[in-house]
Structures are given as structure tokens and as C-alpha cells.
Amino acid sequence: MTTYDVDLFVIGAGSGGVRASRVAASYGASVAIAEEYRVGGTCVIRGCVPKKMLYYAADFASDVAKADRLGWQFTDKKFDWPHLRDVILSDVQRLEGLYTQTLNNNNIKIYQERAVIEGPHQIGLASGKKIKARHILVAVGAEPARLDIPGAELAVTSNEMFLLPELPKRAVVIGGGYIANEFAGILNSFGVKTVVATHGDIILRGYEQEMAQRLVEIGQAHGIHYQFNAALSSIVRENDGSLTATFSNGTKIETDLVLFAIGRIPNSKNLGLEAAHVALDKKGGIIVNEENHSSCSSIYAVGDVTDRVQLTPVAIREGQAFADRVFGNKKASVDYTTIPTAVFSHPPLASAGLTEEEARAEYKNIKIYKSSFRPMRNALIGSDDRALYKMIVDGHSDRVLGLHLIGPDSPEIVQLAAVAIKAGLTKQDFNDTIALHPTSAEELVLLR
């Protein structure tokens, strides 16, 4: 009989890997985990958590600007970027400590070094140590993509945005996805002259396009400039230290910072996956089945490295289901339908269920209900920004297929809206629910 050092070895201590480790250990499995950077992974260390903190600070900027209308007087309105940056980094360090504590409390051995796969059951650590594992879970996440153009090294990615020594006066954000639009809103709110440049003709491809268009309109009103059909071709450092971004259409933009926000690629390189004949897709994502099983019987993968759904809550759910199945002998699965998503832009955008385009492709008869309104808070502070809510309904069964919102607190609202869609509630169910007044959320039950 083969003797193993551990029942489970996890490569990557991000959200999915930590959850899988903790749950597996709770079933009595011996577990070890390797992390070459910092425990917590992308979301906690350099992703959604610190970015949401930046979002809160940026959102507060508009409150300060409009404070006098509400009777508040500030004699010295001043923003201190290094102070905010250091507060965020300190809190990230606190969270890293909590994640590490969770692993230690569950008797999980932590190796703070790089690990690679040397065979179906063997792990090699950077220190030279070899470990045999009954099961291996790859949970190394993804990394920001970079353009292969002259001067690409002069650009930063989302990883470096939390470490900037100072705020730039001007910034060009390359990309049209959620990361690009979130950082564009943050930078613009901090007073940075911001340009969003994308090679396509729309932003937020795959989202409900009426919401995306409303975001563009509001962004433009707040000073964000959008360049569509603009593919970046080069970046040059000028003698004064500034940058010149040149696009394929001939446009040149002088700036102080270029941010690549063009998507994320699975972090599967140099992991030794070929040693265990683990199959990858064209983007480098580990191919897995519905049970997160790779092409190697002893190796599994969860989270962004699978390039399936790159969302932290999905990675956590996959890690939980993996541990429940393999070590808890439970029939656990992950339902990928009706996953709520949010873009923490300014204003935020949130969605659950099918877009109108998707619904029309799948159903013969759909009905659309919309409400465009100015939230009370916006009216009070003198903002002309208008929220937009959109409900998509199956005209035959009256079942709600999708809900899409842009406006204050939209991500908070859409979480419960996703529950309603998941439960198969109808438009009449919404109609029969008494409105909570005065709120923006009441629009969901008043749509006619």
C-alpha cells in the first residue's frame, strides 16, 4: 500500500483553497497548504477587499463635495492618498492574520513557499522538500493580463494600484470590463483626470447593456472620458517623466499612469501540471468536470485557475463542495445559474439572472419592466444622476428571469433579488409585496 504524508495538499491559500482546507480538516483529513506570496489570495490581498475599501473612500469624496448643501461646513477639504493607502494595507494585513489563524486553528500545515506538482501524488517545494499527497487541489487563482506591446513594462496592473506612492494627476485605464470601470470611478472620484480606452465599441460586455450605457452617460457627466474602438499600440516615457499612450487609430494621450485592466488569466504556468498530465484549455485554465476533477484522478482544481467563473464566492463554494464530496462523503454540487454579480463603479451596477439579449434567445415571449428615477439622496444633494432598474419576465409563466440595477446600493439590493429569481418567483409575487418606503429598492415591487 502507498503511504501518503497528507490526505490533501492544497496549492494556493486564497479563498477557495483556504475553505477547502478548513472543511477537509474538519472531516479528519490531514491537510497541508502552500502559498508563495501571502495567505488570503487575490481577493483579500490585492483584489476585491482592498478595492472595495478604495470604493468606499472614493464614494465619500462625493459626499464631501456636496456636504455644504446638507449643512456641513469643511474649512479644509483635503485628500491624503498615502494615509488611505496605508490604512487599507494595514487592514489587509489584519485579514491575512485572520486567514492564517483559521488554518492554524484547524491544524493545517502551512508552507510559505512555492509548490509544484511532480506527479499525480507528489509535490515539490522550493526548499527541496518532497511531499506525497493522496489528493492534490490546485487553487492558485489568476493574474492580471498584460498587453504585449512596446512599453508594456511602463504600465501597472490592478496588483500595483494599492501600492502607488502617490496618486497620478492623469490616468488612462485600458479595458472595458468590471475592473477597468471600477478603477476608473475610483480614480475620477479622487480627482484624477481619467480616460477609459477599450478596443471594443461597448463597455461591460456580457452585462445588461442598458445599464452599461447608463454608466457611460453618468461617467461622462462626472468627467470620465471614454475612447471606444481604441487598441493601445505603445507606451513611451517622455523626458519629463510623463507617459504617452498611442493607439492604433492614431490617437495619442499624455498621461501619468497607464493601467492594464484587460482581464485575468489562469495562474497555471510552471506548476508542473504536465507531470501529472493535467489538461488545460486554450487560456491555460485547468479543465475540470462538474466535481472539479481534472484529467488526473488525484488532482482537482477550484476557483479562477479553472477559468470557469472568476468570482471569489464561486471559488469558496467550489472549495466547500470539493471537501464535502471527497472527505465528507456528501453529494455536494455547485449551481452556477443565477449568480449575482456587481460592478463597484460610480454608481454601482448589479445583476442577477438573464440579460434581455440572453432571455430573447432562450424564450419566445418575454416582457420588460423598467424604472428610471432619481434616488432621494441624489435629489437632496443636487445630483442629476438617475438610477435605472430593469426586470425581465417570461411572458408565458410570469417568472422573473433577470434583474439589473444601476444606482446607489444596487449590489446590496440585488443579493436578495437573486434569491427571488432562484426561487422562481413571478412578477405577480413582486407586485403583491408591499413597498418599503422611502427606498430605492421599492422600485422593484412598483414596476408596471
TrEMBL record:
Q: Which positions are annotated as binding FAD?
A: 52, 304
Keyword NAD attributed = yes
Write the signal peptide boundaries: none
For this UniProt record, the keywords arranged alphabetically read as follows: Disulfide bond, FAD, Flavoprotein, NAD, Nucleotide-binding, Oxidoreductase, Redox-active center
Record-linked InterPro entries = FAD/NAD-bd_sf, FAD/NAD-binding_dom, FAD/NAD-linked_Rdtase_dimer_sf, GSHR/TRXR-like, Pyr_nuc-diS_OxRdtase, Pyr_nucl-diS_OxRdtase_dimer, Pyr_OxRdtase_I_AS
GO cellular component term, pick one: cytosol
Q: Name one GO biological process term.
A: glutathione metabolic process
What does this protein need as cofactor?
A: FAD
Q: Where is the FAD/NAD(P)-binding domain?
A: 7-319
Name it.
Pyridine nucleotide-disulfide oxidoreductase dimerization region
